[in-house]
Amino acid sequence: MGEDIDFTLYNNIKRLSEDELIQLWEAFFKNRKDKTLRDNIIVQYLYLVKYVVSRVRCTLPATISPEDVAGYGVEGLIDAIERFSADKNTKFETYALIRIRGMILDKIRSEDFLPRSVRIKLKKIKQVQEDLKQKLGRMPTSDEISKEMDIPVDKINRILSEDVVVTSIYDKQGSSDDSMTFEETIQDEQALNPSEKAEEKDTKQELEKALMRLPQRERNIMVLYYQENMTLKEIGQVMGMSESRVCQVHAQSIVKLKNILMETRAQRAANTSVIG
After folding, report:
1. Which residues pair with 181 in a beta bridge?
2. For position 18, which CATH number holds?
3. 93, 100, 184, 241: least buried by Cβ within 10 Å?
4. What is the CA angle 202-106-235, rounded to 5?
5. Residue 190: inside a domain, yes or no?
6. Domain assignment present for 204
7. Residue 65 in domain
């Protein structure tokens, strides 16, 4: 995953002005079957694919090529353009980021990229995870899985981090087709209604508290990656680590954060039950 995607073609394309872009969209809304109009819109928004690819590459296995990921992203962009309408209560860029990232992850989820030995271990852990979920009425933490399987929690987290592409702290916050991830929600606060803003605020506060419980190095990586938007290479240079090691620590940190968040919510649910 170390090589960069070649977006030379996009760099050579003339960017339209805001007025020209509005006119292009209006023409497309009137005639969605016009592939030329659609293709002209695609090239104007290829930078969104480049952005998403740069954000998800840390969570992807090395066996998946950057070219494939970029191709999935373009499919997501086309899907976003064809689905988008002027009456959607969000900017196209925000909507497209959701569709692009969703398409990439859906495509990767459909592929079996893990070695057979890791897949077997992961399957056993997920079976115990599901059994405990039924028993506890909630998703179990790594500590609980560790005790049930008599396996060190660090090893549980390492194995789970191999499957981190489908276990992100930025999973959708709802079940609807247009629901947003936490990261995408904070990019367009104007599109949120009062209830969504309150939920988004609670989510941010919950995540900030969880981050403070991570070791300093892991917390720094998460902050630099998600808040400062630094690349893996840049983070490695700042922290004196290789890019691959930054990826590894990032993946394990996500698993730990998910565990902390689950513990917090389980405790809150237990307290609510006692009060009730």
Report:
1. 172
2. 1.10.1740.10
3. 93
4. 60
5. no
6. no
7. yes
Count of domains for the chain: 1
Q: Is residue 261 part of a domain?
A: no
**Residue 72's domain spans which residues?**
1-114
Q: How far apart are CA 129 and CA 127, in angstroms?
A: 5
Instruction: Show pLDDT as tens, one digit a residue, over the chain (276 residues).
Output: 333 444 555 556 778 899 999 999 999 999 999 999 999 999 999 999 988 887 776 666 666 777 888 899 999 999 999 999 878 778 899 899 989 988 988 887 776 666 788 888 888 998 998 999 889 887 788 889 999 999 998 888 878 776 655 444 344 443 344 443 434 433 444 445 566 566 556 667 788 888 888 899 999 998 888 778 787 788 899 999 988 788 878 878 887 888 788 777 777 766 666 555
